[in-house]
Amino acid sequence: MKLIAWNCNMAFRKKAEFILAHNPDIAVISECESPEKLKFPDEIQTPTDILWFGTNPHKGVGVFSYSDYRFQLLDSHNPDFKNILPIAVTGGKVDFTLFAIWANNPADKDGAYVTQIWKAINYYEDLIKETKTILIGDFNSNTIWDKPRREGNHTTVVNKLADKNIFSTYHKYFNQIQGKEAHPTLYMYRHENKPYHMDYCFASNDFIEVLESVEVGSYKDWTLYSDHKPLIIKFNI
After folding, report:
1. CB-count burial class (<10 Å; 0-12, 13-18, 19+) for 20
2. Which of 41, 80, 125, 225 keeps 20 to 30 A from 114, CA to CA?
3. GO MF terms on file (predicted)?
4. In 3D, which of 39, 33, 40, 35 has the Cα closest to residue 17?
């Protein structure tokens, strides 16, 4: 099972071919336009299922299946955490709960980015289990921006997930420390001298045990299309 997370910087319909070249089973695309605007070229593979959520038809979260997996947004979805979507994934080799994440809610005065994830993982406490759970997408956060006195910084999110045996696939695969990542997923303003790691796939330990590979797209290959680079995760399922 191959998952790809990518903030496409809008107009996914014009960029899907570059993601499809990597043969994902599931793609979680931040800043994706609504299904009504998704007019893919005729030669592009059509998704077998799409789930989209957003208040701006040009920029929401799109979840695409290019396999037997099917999606259902769970009734427990709380729109207060705008772009953090709890999804039942079924129909493939394994059923699981997927949280598709684009941490971006400027209306929340407590914090627009990682604070959203902190609130969500507490709100969805009962859904986030020690097995069959994946959280993936643009977290817009990194330990380097921790504010020690703020509850719900990046480190507290990482630690709370770890308490449930849920870990970052990237950090496990490359044996990296949070905040010391060797592979940036964002180049601010597309400047090569402004690299950050802000996109993640956290998975419960049953997935970690069958983690086969993790890849981050390169600056030269992806900068034409977005300031973010895709995070590509493959599980031996």
Report:
1. middle
2. 225
3. exonuclease activity
4. 40
**Residue 129 clears pLDDT 90, i.e. is over it:** yes
Q: Where are the domains of the chain?
A: 2-235
- Residue 228 burial (10 A CB sphere; 0-12, 13-18, 19+): buried
| 2-235 CATH, one of 3.60.10.10, 3.40.50.720, 3.40.190.10, 3.40.50.1360 | 3.60.10.10
State how far the Cα of 149 lies from the Cα of 152, in Å rounded to an integer: 9
pLDDT above 90 as % of the chain: 92
For 173-216, what is each residue's pLDDT tens digit? 999 999 999 999 999 999 999 999 999 999 999 999 999 999 99
Chain length of the chain: 237
